[in-house]
Amino acid sequence: MARVPIGPLEYTRRTWMRLTLLATFVFLYAPIVTLVAFSFNDSRRNIVWRGFTTKYYEKALGNSELIEAFVNSLTIALLSTLIATVLGALTALLLWRFRFPFKAGYEGAMALPIVIPEICMGVAMLAFFAKVGWPSGLPWPFSLSAIIIAHVSFSFPFVAVVVRARLAGFNQELAEAAQDLGASEWRVFWDVMVPFMRPGLVAGALLAFTLSLDDFVITFFTSGPDTVTFPVKVYSMVRFSVTPEVNAASTVLIVLTVLLTSAALWLQFRQEKKES
Amino acid sequence: MNTSGDAATTRGAPIIEISGLCKRFGDFAAVDKVDLTVERGEFFALLGPSGCGKTTLLRMLAGLDLPTEGTIRIDGQDMSLVPANRRPVNMVFQSYAVFPHMTVLDNVGYGLRIDGVAKDEIRRRAEEALDLVKLGGFGNRRPDQLSGGQRQRVALARALVKRPKVLLLDEPLSALDAKLREAMRLEMVNLQETVGITFIIVTHDQSEALSMATRIAVMDAGVVQQIAPPAELYEFPASRFVADFIGSVNMIEGRVEAAANGRIRLACPGIAAPVEMEQDRLPAVGSTAWVALRPEKIDITKEVPPEPGLNRVSGVVEEITYLGETSVYHVRVAPDLPLIKVSSANLDRVTRRAFTWEDPVHLSWTSSCGVVLDR
Amino acid sequence: MEDWRRGRSAFWLIGLGPTFWLLLFFLVPLAIVWLYSFAELRGLVDMEVTGTLDNYARALDPLYLEVFGKSLAFAGITTAISLVVGFPVALAIVFAPPRWRPVLLLLVILPFWTNLLIRTYALIAVLRVRGFANFTLEWIWEQSNTLLSLLGLGSYQLLGERFEPLELLYNNTAVVIGLVYVHLPFMVLPLYAALEKLDRSLIEAALDLGASQWRAFMTVVVPLSMPGIISGAILVFIPALGSFLTPDLLGGTDSQMIANVIERQFKSANDWPFGAALSFLLMYLTFAALALRAVLARGRGGI
Q1: Residue of C25, A217, A32, C208 lying closest to B60 (CA atoms)
Q2: Cβ separation of B158 and C209 shorter than 8 Å?
Q3: Total domains in the fold of chain B
């Protein structure tokens, strides 16, 4: 028989399912692929292929505002990730380890930054920094402090969720064994808890990093003329016109995130392999 | 191979006819050229170790897997590639697959609802089916309020209520505890007699198959090894695999020296005298063959048995396994031969046991109590 | 879990930092906006919190009610489309051969890791009048015309005299396309998780009992993956409802959503009290959606 008949549950082998899958992936990827492809297109009109060029990358590299915005974005992402990872891990530990009054309410408040619309958070940050009179015109990198604070506020609850999920699988006997062998609470924390939490910390940190790099709305409300981030810069360029230069800059960011994601997945994969 | 020699019954055409059935996954053949017929009203068992293809065969009957090659006829109609929902068979799944979001009554009535049966009748027939499996009054329960055994009964009722031509059961008793399993065997047999539907059961448990089925197909590596009623399967296994899989057996290897007039003489290394056996099917002279002897068919004595014409060998008791009503003696007859297992009823109490470790003993068996196998 | 009183010092050491941060840099800012929503404008930028409800009353103006209605409609339609598209995708991934599953899953997740702004921008390039969607349509138009000519129907101009590019950008359709584009992975992942847990023999049992594939899907697969459906719907609906970037970049003047109106109050109209009221109304809508989910989840758990 030439063709193996399709079993009743082999949905993925059905033509219409494959077409749906294909159409969905085309829908998800065609825009990104065209964006990347036409960052190399030697034509401003963007639509017809006129030959390969890297001149828009050179142009983007030569655009000092774009570079500055890029550096700002990375700096913000790095610093906010650091703070958010520590705060998120502490939150996770607190909720995992202790029973305390109004805990449900506390958890609800911690979930708020995850669920409320970005725009609400954005205007809240705007109103807050205006109200307290947060100093502007500080030297770099302190000029980025408002944005970093805002980013930490929305990303550390995400880290907490990831780390707490990891902690849920912790075997209490490990800590008890360490205590039994004479370790102080502090030693138990560093020698047992932190190593166990590490995959969660790495995953959480990567999530925080991506969230920070990705964020436009909240940054849009907290950034000033001197503290433009990459998304905010791209936004102003996009509003103005669609140019291959933006394509080039975007491609760089896409490649960066894809590399980071691959690294994260690889780390996770390695961890799972080690534990299994 | 066509072992269904006794197909010429008077009950009409076979309900299931399978011929040349194959299911391949890439290079691996889960089911390999199977021919099989099941008669109307049979309690048929597919028996084999896990991975032998018995479940795949059952699923092909249900239409849940489709064959790569070959045909399946159900009640005379070719159903090889007919979708599962248009086959006149129903299945009891190993996990029972009771719908967790429906009540017991809705579960049982599901198939009838699909068929567009009137509401009142669905209720009547579903309750009837529940009574049949002794779950009357459980209709409004949810599956998570039932025990494993009760869930299995729901699955049974749900399949039976559709009055299928064949009921397929995939390891129906494997998830139950040992006591319940024993009780369910008898109940299933009674149930099958009551409803008169052909049952095909898949199991890896030989005692289950032997105690329930009217006929058994033993499968190994995708191939049907033998199809026979339980007693025949036990007494006349067709291959070493079947002999070994069903019950306990001693396999004595030898070379066929003579084979004529229903008598076979073998030279077995480690046994001084030639072994003589009686059997209709004769192996080729000069070929290697195996004498399959059930442990309970071998006599164990202190003195040399006086009767003439017996096969005999002497040895030393090396191990004794006490099993309650019987004891199994493991006897060393030659240094490089596997121990021979002999089981003997414990008529006396153990303290007065006839043999103990290191005792020299004589084993003997008649020429008709075992079989000679050439594969 | 231990009681906080049994390890007070550890409790405070661990809890102080995050609590302080959440309070100062999240709850206080929210409280400020909440207070502003009861304020009146004094002059160009000054405000005074007077406890007025005027800002909320103004939100009931038909003009803004329409924006709310539109936002809910956009979010609802987006959720529905994502569900209809996402279900077969999730199903196809769950029932794919095991070695393909992680790859397909990764392909769904990957766009989620790409910057939202960049993805929206990429969509503009595809959807605009001289973009790829129209480019492809024109190509299809030309091929069909050639085909018609070959059939001897060329002179009737059945497909119009020349290709009219579709206006795919700066309208409601573009916003919905954009919202689906951005949120589809949020629907597929919970559906995948729910379907993966589904015991396959339940579907097989339904088929075995005579149900068609469609009937088995509706009576077994859908009810049993309801937790995934609800999660997916909430994960799409809530962010879609509060979307700013998508309607801003892809929408026309009449396809603005609440977030765009809020942004205008804060950035250009300088009417912070009204913007504050709107953003709290948006938040209440979000909470309502979450509460609905909780009710649905409890309803399912109870039966």
Answers
A1: C208
A2: yes
A3: 2
Residues A35, B357: Cα–Cα separation, whole Å? 85
Range of the domain at C147: 132-166
Answer yes or no: do C148 and C120 share one domain.
Answer: no
- Smallest CA–CA separation between B118 and chain A, in Å? 28
Share of chain A above pLDDT 70, in %: 96
In DSSP terms, B265 is beta-bridged to B258, B276
Examine the domain organization and report whether B158 and B284 are in the same domain: no
CB contact under 8 A, A93 and C126: no
With a cut of 80, say whether residue C135 has pLDDT above it: no
Distance separating alpha carbons of residues A213 and A77, to the nearest angstrom: 6
pTM beyond cutoff 0.95? no
Give how far the C-alpha of residue B273 lies from the chain's centroid of Cα atoms, to the nearest Å. 35
Say whether pLDDT at A176 is over 80: yes
pLDDT tens-digit map of B234-280? 888 888 899 888 888 888 888 888 888 888 888 888 787 888 888 88
Contacts of B159 (CB under 8 A, 6+ apart): B90, B91, B92, B111, B167, C208, C209
Which residue is listed with tokens 């079947």? Answer: B242
pLDDT tens digit sequence for C67-102: 999 999 999 999 999 999 999 999 999 999 888 898
Identify whether residues B140 and B223 lie together within a single domain. Answer: yes
- B74 close to B29: Cβ distance less than 8 angstroms: no
Q: Does a cis peptide bond (omega within 30 degrees of 0) precede residue A101?
A: no
Contacts of C33 in chain A (CB under 8 A): 120, 123-124, 127
Nearest residue on chain A to C47, alpha-carbon basis: A131
**Touching check for A250 and chain C: CB below 8 Å?**
yes
The single residue listed with the structure tokens 């138009």 is C141
Cβ within 8 Å, pair C204-B85 = no
If DSSP codes are grouped into helix, strand and coil, which group holds residue B170?
Answer: strand
- From CA B190, how far away is CA B170, in angstroms rounded? 18
Which two structure tokens, joined as six digits, stand for A252? 């760089």
Dihedral pair phi/psi, residue B203, rounded to 5°: -155, 155
Q: Give the residue from chain B lying closest to A10, CA to CA.
A: B65
* Cross-strand pairs, B39: none
Listed by number, the residues of chain B in 25-64 with a beta carbon closer than 8 Å to a beta carbon of chain A are: 63-64
Answer yes or no: do C215 and C161 share one domain: no
Mutate to test the interface with C, among B25, B85, B145 (most CBs of C within 10 A): B85
Contacts with A8 from chain B: Cβ below 8 Å = 63-64, 83-84
Cβ–Cβ pairs < 8 A, chains B and C = 64
CATH code, B356: 2.40.50.140
**Which chain B residues are within 8 Å of A7, Cβ to Cβ?**
64-66
CB-CB under 8 Å, C212 with B85: yes
Residue ranges and CATH numbers for the domains of chain A are 65-275 (1.10.3720.10)
B99 and chain C in contact, CB less than 8 A? yes
